[in-house]
Write a structure and sequence with these properties.
single chain; 148 residues; alpha+beta; three-stranded antiparallel beta sheet; 20% helix; dATP diphosphatase activity
Length: 148
């Protein structure tokens, strides 16, 4: 089964703009926000974001205490060659849809050990500098514009 080249990026942050970054298990030193592809073509993007947030961090976006915010922003980027084998032959680009989730600073973070090994909270400018993905870094830099 090939991955669908449509994904979400969820910038998890506190009210004072500290950002949660997680380190990839398969690439030590690669820090990122929550990301993940749609499971099915008809899976709504908000559900992809909700599912990935929970799978990767244990954080539940219940729509009350923690709500997902759809930025109505999409990025198209070239899939890194190291991960292209996960997609159908000939697929070279992915469309990423950006969301955010404002969480309490003391929210428990429970990583999926097969996906991520460590997490860190950083002020948003420092977090942007640590992101390995340019689209992730840009989303983190845009965070102040998307916080009500």
């Amino acid at each position: 089964m090939h991955k669908i080249p449509e994904s979400v990026l969820v910038v998890v942050h506190t009210a004072d703009l500290d950002v949660l970054l997680i380190e990839r298990a398969d690439k030590p030193g690669y820090w990122q926000s929550v990301t993940g592809s749609k499971d099915t073509l008809d899976e709504p993007l908000i559900e992809t974001a909700r599912r990935e947030l929970f799978e990767e961090t244990g954080i539940v976006a219940d729509g009350k205490a923690i709500a997902l915010r759809d930025w109505q922003l999409s990025n198209i980027y070239e899939i890194y060659p190291v991960w292209r084998h996960r997609y159908a032959p000939g697929v070279t680009h992915n469309t990423e849809h950006v969301f955010s989730a404002c969480v309490p600073r003391d929210v428990p973070v429970i990583l999926s050990p097969r996906e991520h090994t460590h997490y860190v909270w950083l002020p948003y400018l420092e977090a942007a500098d640590r992101c390995f993905s340019p689209s992730n870094a840009e989303a983190v830099l845009q965070l102040p514009r998307h916080v009500p």
